[in-house]
Amino acid sequence: MSVSAAAPLRIQSATLADIPTIIELAEATWEPTYRFIISREQIDYMYRVIYTPASLQRQMAEQGHTFLLVYVEDEPRGYASFSAQPTEGLYKLHKIYVLPSAQGQGLGQQLIGAVEQAVREAGGHALELNVNRHNPALAFYERQGFQLHREEDIAIGPYWMNDYVMRKELR
After folding, report:
1. DSSP string, 19-50
2. Does the structure show a pLDDT above 90 at 38?
3. What is the pLDDT of residues 56-97, one digit of tens each?
4. Which 8-state DSSP code applies to residue 130?
């Protein structure tokens, strides 16, 4: 099912003023996304590292992350963030989350499309993302044209993220 024409969809770049909205969306999506994949302690730890106002401000202002917010009927329903990587033309999709109540409506696909368009406009030719090896979203990314590129284990504090790195060539 996709968002109907009667429900106007808008995707826009976020600013520092949107950090409270991003945090509100993260609070509603983070735990349901990871509760069956990683421990409660790891969920809480990672959330505190990634989603404080100061951390989000650093991501936007210092680390070059662009955040996009998706709205349906002027209500925020999800977000994505991405940035250029050191390899020429390579970008990374850092985050993409849609409210559980809004999943299955095509919003994630719309967000990925908006990220791909922005990356192409910036001269990028490939988009990578990390996904936990046990995350059911793996199938979603494959449907969007991403392919397994490599495996990666990343330390985050006392925990490990056991991920696949997926890549999509943009034409």
Report:
1. HHHHHHHHHHHHHHHHTTTS-HHHHHHHHHHH
2. no
3. 999 999 999 999 999 999 999 999 999 999 999 999 999 999
4. E
d(CA 61, CA 79): 17
User: Which of 25, 21, 13, 29 minimizes the C-alpha distance to 114?
Assistant: 13
72-75 contacts: CB < 8 A, separation 24 or more?
72/3, 72/7, 72/8, 72/9, 72/10, 72/102, 72/105, 72/107, 73/7, 73/8, 74/8, 74/10
Contact 96, 112 (CB under 8 A): yes
Chain centroid to CA 147: how far?
17
- Counting every residue written for the chain, the total comes to 171
| Residue 1 banded pLDDT, cuts 50, 70, 90 | very low
In this prediction, residue 6 carries a pLDDT of 55
| DSSP H stretches of helix in the chain | 19-34, 40-50, 53-61, 107-121, 137-143
- Cβ atoms within 10 Å of 40's Cβ, excluding its own: 10
Count of other CB atoms within 10 angstroms of residue 87: 10
